[in-house]
């Protein structure tokens, strides 16, 4: 018999417990032994929960029980998740986690601690929900150099943008729906401001390169400035708007960012809708590989948590070593180059043509001028926009374009 514990009986914790009961037989066959949930740590009593008899309030009960070999940390947030994870690893227990904030902040240190104590620290559920993406990058694409990653990494914002695109829904109504479905973070600012996607692109980049970037060093924009009118103009021009986490190699530099992008309809990312996530990984030998699935929700996330638990118990978990970024990565965002969608008012088309002679003008219904600039760096974009500003132009919208 193998014994496991779950830290936190929230959305993901309950889903994980459900999974281990529902698929008990299959899991036993795959592990080669029965797997039993022995404890659930929570500060609440939760007498109505089917797992009420497993609830303990003191982490010491789990740490002090030598029968528990794997702990699933699904509490979320930095504290006390960090302290509990350190304690469990130091006590010789493997830890699996859905906690993207913790992994993006302390992943390098926690992997080191796990190695020091001869146990595993795994976090497939932290990125892309149900989608197997971290293990495949580590194992199945191990012969490649990863040259780029573009991911729809946040289910809540993808749900909102899909509802804005498909149904003309307002931002607020779509956010409320996503919250009701249990996709959103407790504080949805982490979703809509791009912070959640930022943590996930840091985890993906570290998995691909071995270097963990400080999320605070990543250029991060959310979707709160996206207007219904921009979504419509983009749609007419053959684009859909997606919040992307990206790692991009350009001229030998590695850029990392989170921002809304106009995604061409022909891109495999364009058709990823609702709560689904998609991660397009560009490699030197395998070419492009697309990972797709449900990026949020209790059962999809539980699926990834369970995969890590089973992998530890079977002894086939991938070993990772991350170092922290030395400050040279990510590259200076001012040098990142792409096309830009802009919507301007207070300026004539002729004045825009003087600054961006190769711009592609897009049809609009109102007074605003919408266009796609040529490929220019962020610095050039800012300088040229300032020149237009001197002629009276006022920026109404700015969204980068995925090439
Ligand atoms: N709030 C997150 C999302 C949950 O919407 O994708 C999964 O990490």
Tell me about this structure.
β10 and β11 (253-264) form a beta hairpin. The protein has helices spanning 11-22, 24-31, 59-63, 81-90, 100-116, 134-138, 155-167, 171-180, 189-192, 195-209, 228-236, 298-314, 349-355, 378-390, and strands spanning 2-7, 35-41, 55-56, 68-73, 94-97, 121-122, 146-152, 211-212, 219-220, 239-250, 253-264, 276-283, 288-294, 323-324, 337-345, 360-362, 369-372, 376-377, 394-401. It has 3 domains: 2-129 and 312-323, NAD(P)-binding Rossmann-like Domain (Rossmann fold, 3-Layer(aba) Sandwich); 134-294, Dihydrodipicolinate Reductase, domain 2; 333-401, Alpha-Beta Plaits. The model has no long low-confidence stretch (mean pLDDT 96). Helices cover 36% and strands 26% of the residues. The N and C termini lie far apart (52 Å). The protein binds L-homoserine (HSE). L-homoserine binds at residues 129, 154-156, 183-185, 191, 196, 295-296.
Number of contiguous helices:
14
Structural class: alpha/beta
Bulk shape: elongated
Ligand inventory reads: L-homoserine
Q: Number of domains in the coordinates?
A: 3
- What is the CATH topology of the largest domain? Dihydrodipicolinate Reductase, domain 2
Per CATH, which architecture of the largest domain? 2-Layer Sandwich
Helical amount: 25-40%
> Mind telling me the C-alpha Rg?
23 Å
Low-confidence stretches: none
Number of strands: 19
Distance between the first and last residues' Cα: 52 Å
> What would you give as the CATH superfamily of the largest domain?
Dihydrodipicolinate Reductase, domain 2
How large a portion of the residues is in β-strands, by DSSP E?
25-35%
């Amino acid at each position: 018999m193998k014994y496991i514990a779950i830290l936190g009986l929230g959305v993901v914790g309950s889903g994980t417990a459900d999974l281990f009961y529902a698929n008990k037989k299959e899991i036993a066959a795959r592990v080669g032994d029965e797997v039993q949930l022995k404890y659930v740590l929570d500060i609440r009593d939760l007498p109505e929960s089917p797992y009420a008899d497993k609830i303990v309030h003191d982490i010491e009960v789990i740490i002090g029980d030598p029968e528990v070999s794997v702990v699933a940390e699904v509490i979320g947030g930095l504290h006390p998740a960090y302290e509990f994870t350190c304690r469990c690893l130091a006590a010789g227990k493997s830890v699996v986690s859905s906690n993207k904030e913790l992994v993006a902040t302390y992943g390098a240190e926690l992997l080191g601690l796990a190695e020091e104590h001869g146990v595993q620290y795994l976090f497939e559920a932290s990125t892309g929900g149900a989608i197997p993406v971290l293990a495949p990058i580590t194992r199945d694409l191990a012969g490649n150099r990863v040259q780029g990653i573009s991911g729809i990494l946040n289910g809540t914002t993808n749900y909102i943008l899909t509802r804005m695109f498909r149904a003309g829904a307002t931002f607020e109504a779509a956010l409320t729906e996503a919250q009701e479905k249990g996709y959103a973070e407790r504080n949805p600012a982490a979703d809509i401001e791009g912070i959640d996607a930022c943590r996930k692109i840091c985890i993906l980049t570290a998995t691909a390169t071995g270097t963990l970037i400080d999320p605070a060093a990543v250029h991060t924009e959310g979707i709160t400035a996206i207007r219904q009118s921009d979504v419509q103009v983009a749609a007419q021009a053959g684009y859909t708007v997606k919040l992307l986490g990206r790692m991009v190699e350009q001229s030998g530099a590695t850029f990392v960012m989170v921002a809304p992008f106009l995604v061409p309809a022909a891109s495999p990312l364009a058709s990823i809708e609702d709560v689904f996530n998609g991660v397009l990984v560009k490699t030197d030998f395998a070419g492009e590989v697309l990972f797709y699935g449900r990026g949020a929700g209790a059962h999809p996330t539980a699926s990834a948590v369970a995969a890590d638990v089973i992998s530890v118990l079977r002894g086939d978990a991938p070993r990772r070593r991350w170092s922290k970024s030395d400050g040279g990565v990510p590259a200076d965002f001012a040098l990142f180059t792409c096309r830009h969608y802009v919507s301007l008012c207070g300026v004539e088309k002729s004045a825009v043509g003087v600054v961006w002679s190769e711009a592609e003008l897009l049809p609009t219904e109102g007074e605003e001028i919408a266009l796609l600039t040529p490929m220019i760096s962020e610095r050039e974009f800012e300088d040229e926009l300032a020149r237009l500003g001197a002629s009276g132009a006022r920026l109404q919208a700015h969204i980068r374009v995925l090439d």
